[in-house]
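Re: the 113-residue chain
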Amino acid sequence: MTRPAVRMCTRCERNTDDPVLVHQVHAPTGPGFNVYACPDCATHYPPPTDPLEIPPPTHHRSRLTLRVYKIDATGTVTDDRGEVEILAAEHTDPVPVMSAFPPCACLRCKPPH
């Protein structure tokens, strides 16, 4: 004879005999844990997602904002040039990771002269 699963609802904090899995917490250093809710409270949670699923592509360009300034030896800002915003191109290929010698000679990896 099996014992029914009894879990505490994460929302209303009451025990339930009919738990619904609403979230899985993954831990990098050991086993994770599951989060359960009662059937009434489970409707307030989005459906669980697969952590190995590839997310859909975003349709916005990547942006990098840099604050450009010079400081003196005491840490005081002496020349503030404001912010520089860099937008990535629409289609960028990742830089290849390799340990080949000689190093890659493509235009993207080749150092400027």
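The mean pLDDT is 79.
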